[in-house]
Specification:
Elements lengths: L6 E2 L16 H4 L9 E4 L4 E8 L11 E4 L17 E10 L4 E7 L1 H12 L10 E7 L4 H4 L1 E8 L4 H8 L3 H8 L4 H12 L39
Antiparallel strand pairs: 1-3, 2-5, 2-7, 3-4, 3-5, 5-6, 7-8
Length: 231
């Protein structure tokens, strides 16, 4: 039985559990810069499950491409290789540097830090009520690459409220929806460069998807969403 969670989730959730409308992903998605990145969340997190597929695992410059897991539909070619789908989350945010709406694609390393603030209801609580600084230290290693700080609580400005009211929640939902078996196969064909591609080590049985909470990917080993979202 496949056990998956995808789509909008609550910050207090312990579950690591998802056809999308084409939008100019390169412009819509936020790439975190080295140093400070001050944002304001304007949506709940949208969870999805993802694999990383490499065309040439022996090539150190092949950092892989992200594909959403299709196991909820009964089969996933990548799961069948023994690879465990990992949870990630999409957030609608206001980028303070530009005053614009972006989608932020985060791993467990960032999600877990924001969740700590969300669960600290005495001092912080709902993370849409204050700005967050996501600091990137490219020399910080796996544990120090990302750090999140909550800033003082401030109400949204009128301009902020307009951005929040116009956040496309249906778009986030679509982007978090699992691929069908056929959609996944098309992506594998494109990545691997052959039709009806079968990944090395594929098994005939479909295993239960394990929702791993580790976060072993950094910027280069797990490229940003906009680089891998096209079908």
């Amino acid at each position: 039985m496949v056990n998956q969670t995808y789509g909008a989730v609550d910050w207090n959730s312990d579950a690591f559990g998802s056809d999308e409308k084409r939008i100019n992903s390169k412009d819509l998605f936020l790439r975190l810069e080295d140093g400070q990145n001050i944002i304001r969340l304007v949506t709940q997190p949208y969870q999805y499950l993802v694999h990383k597929v490499k065309k040439d695992a022996t090539n150190p410059k092949d950092f892989g491409q992200k594909v959403r897991c299709s196991a909820i539909h009964g089969s996933c070619a990548v799961c069948n290789t023994g690879d465990k789908a990992k949870p990630r989350w999409l957030l609608g945010v206001i980028v303070r540097k530009t005053g614009t709406y972006k989608i932020l694609d985060i791993s467990f390393a960032v999600f877990s830090q924001i969740r700590k603030y969300a669960r600290n209801t005495q001092y912080f609580g709902d993370p849409t009520k204050y700005d967050l600084n996501i600091e990137v230290d490219k020399n910080g290693g796996a544990t120090g690459y990302y750090s999140v700080q909550a800033l003082s609580k401030e109400a949204l400005s009128a301009a902020d409220q307009v951005i929040k009211d116009n956040a496309d929640l249906e778009d986030l939902k679509r982007r978090a929806t699992p691929l069908t078996i056929e959609q996944l196969q098309k992506q594998l064909d494109r990545i691997l460069g052959v039709e009806n591609a079968i990944l090395p080590g594929a098994k005939s049985a479909t295993p239960v998807v394990s929702m791993s909470s580790d976060d072993d990917e950094l910027e280069k080993s797990f490229p940003s969403y906009e680089e891998t979202a096209t079908a």
